[in-house]
C-alpha cells in the first residue's frame, strides 16, 4: 500500500477513527489499532472496541491499493509531529514507513486479518438536519450517567413522540428532555437506547456536513455525516419510566434572566466545596444565592427575579444546576418547584421542547 495525503487531513482522520479504538489493555491487541484500507484514491480508516466503531473516509493520492492496521495512538502522534504539507505512507510486509520532508518513521503494523469486520445497521436510512440534532444532543447527553454499574442510565433514550423524536437522559440526580417536533426516525411507539458515549462522539462530527443519515437496527445503530460513519451497539433493557418523575403542577415559579443566573452560580459555586450545595432563596423580593462551606467561607449574591408562590429555599448540586442553565436556550428561564425536597423543573418559556429536571439536596 502506498499513498500521499496532506498532514492535517490525515491527522484528523486518524484521530477520528482512533477515538473508537480500544485501549492498550484490551484482550485483542489489534483493537488498539486503526484499520487503513486504500482503494484508488479513497482511504478509509476504522477504529473499534466492538461496541463503538468509527470509520472516516478521505480522498488521497493513491498509488498502490492495500490494507493494514496501524498502531492507533502512535501513528496519530507521529503524523501530528511531522512538518506541514504532504505526508507519504508506504506499507511493505509488517512495516509502515511514514515520511514528510526530511522526517521518516518506520512503524510495525498489526495483523489486518485479525481486525474484526463490523456490520452496518440494517435499518432504512433516515436523513436529519445536523444543526438541530447537534443542539439537542448538547442539551441531553451530559445528563446521562457515567456509572457502568447501571448501564441503562449510561444511554440516551430515543423515542417516537407526538409525530416527532424525543431524546431523554438521566443519571437519577437530574433528567434532560428535548423534543424534535416533526423529526420522524422511529415508528410511533418505538424506542431505542443509544450509548451516551456514541452520541458524544457523534456530536464531534456533526459539523462535518449539513445532513445526517441514521439507520436504526434491532441491536445497533449507525450515523453517517460527510465522510464519517459511526456505528454503535444499542443498550438492551428498559429505560426508567421518567414521565412519572415530572410533576404535573407546581405552585412556585421563579422567572430569571438565564445569563445573569449562570454567571451568579459560577461565582457562588467557588465557595461550594466538598459537595456543598448552592441554596436558592426565592421570594417576592427576588432571588438570593448562598453557598457556605465550614472553615472556608461563604458567598451571597442577589438577582432581580419574579417569584410566584410561597417564599422557598431550595438547595442544588451547583454543577448539575449550572449544566442545566448552560444548555437551556433563550434569554429567560423558569424554575418550578413544589417544596424543598421534591424535584424542580427548569423550563424556557419560549422553548417548550426543552425540560431539565433536578433533584434538590437536603440541607439542615
Could you walk me through the main structural features you see in this protein, from its secondary elements to its overall organization?
It is a single chain. A nine-stranded antiparallel β-sheet has the order 14-11-12-13-26-25-24-18-22. It has an eight-stranded antiparallel β-sheet with strand order 6-2-3-4-17-16-15-10. The chain has a five-stranded antiparallel β-sheet with strand order 5-1-7-8-9. It is of the alpha+beta class and about 375 residues long. The mean pLDDT is about 95. The chain has three domains: about 110 residues, Roll (DNA Polymerase III, Chain A, domain 2), CATH 3.10.150.10; about 120 residues, DNA Polymerase III, Chain A, domain 2 (Roll), CATH 3.10.150; about 110 residues, DNA Polymerase III, Chain A, domain 2 (Roll). Strand 8 and strand 9 form a beta hairpin. The chain is built from six helices and 26 strands. The longest helix is centred in the N-terminal third of the chain and has 12 residues. The protein starts with a strand and ends in a 6-residue tail after the last strand. Helix 1 runs antiparallel to helix 2 and helix 5 packs antiparallel against helix 6.
Which short descriptors sum up this protein?
single chain; 364 residues; alpha+beta; DNA Polymerase III, Chain A, domain 2; 6 helices; 26 strands; elongated
